[in-house]
Amino acid sequence: MHHIDAFRIPCSGPGDATGLQDLLSRGVLAAADIVAVMGKTEGNGCVNDFTREYATSALAQCLGGWLGMAPQDVQRRVAFVMSGGTEGVLSPHWTVFTRRAAQPHRAASGDKRLTIGIAFTRDFLSEEIGRMPQIEATAAAVAQAMRDGGIDDASDVHFVQVKCPLLTSAQMAQARARGAVTVTADTYESMAYSRGASALGVALATGEVDAAQVGDAVVLRQWQLYSSVASVSAGIELDHNVVIVMGMSARASSDLVVAHAVMADVIDAGAVRSAMTALGLSQTDGIVNVFAKAEASPDGVVRGQRHTMLVDSDIHSTRHARAAAGAVVASVVGNGMVYVSGGAEHQGPPGGGPVAVIARAHQAGEGGA
């Protein structure tokens, strides 16, 4: 079984790997133990946000030097998930997860601790994105990641982070030349379709929806179908899905614990507190990081009051939602260096999204969640 640790590292820009390099040089962590990196980069989070690719490249280059392998090989070994957009008080940073063999005396205590599993799907054809092939491949990858993390029961899954591809104009043109039809002809809308299909894949794997309920026609249409633990970010930097499953296991030996709740809307600070309460946290000192999804409520209303996020021609609604939810989460935990991602299609109820808190067990309650 596994012993997990996590390190939150500030950065001065999407190409800044100096913080990671410093921890490696001082022996605080070992490159060979790194299993996943989740980052918030300061791009626009849209189709043309190349800060995600830049950040992944910089971090893979750094780790490649320590591991003695090419950066592209590092990306096949480590699950990199970069989420663009640090509007408002959100602060760019990396969260680096390490994994090594469990410490027998700790694992023998029976208390559940954080464990992490990763998996990668195959590359998708352009016409598969946003449709059943992506849903089914994601579900299979989530199941594989659960096994990789030693998570036996879906009830012990508290957050599933997925990085998925989007469709570029060139990819859509190539598909048309082959006689294939993509789910949309709009590059930005393709991000939503890819996120939505991936989230439904998570829901299928965790048993939150039945196989008979999902299909091409439900993506971005049947909003009552969603996962309460899925967080999906789309990007131009990959053609497959990267899956990171965070959960709890009595066989894990970390001093970290994780719990989740569901934000009903972008101003639901109570959900953040609920996740903290589930861990027995009475203060924020033990928090390692908070992960959340956010979106502008599709009905144009938040708690009965009209919002204008969906009709702003200057700033896309996902950017508004990230800024709003980021401020709410930061106000609760007292830190802007939190992972808040926009675009929550089928990730929590319409207008809301899941939120997960990772904390040190000795500063949380007895045994964690």
Number of strands: 14
The overall number of domains is 3
Calculate Rg over CA atoms: 19 Å
CATH C-level class of the largest domain is: Alpha Beta
Percent helix, as a range, is: 25-40%
What sequence of helices (H) and strands (E) makes up the elements? EHEHHEEHEHEHHEEEHEEEHEE
- The chain-level mean pLDDT equals 95
| Biggest beta sheet summary | 4 strands, mixed
Using the coordinates shown, work out and report the CATH topology of the largest domain. 60s Ribosomal Protein L30, Chain: A
What is the approximate shape?
A: globular
In brief:
The chain is an alpha+beta fold and 369 residues long. The chain is 30% helix and 26% strand.
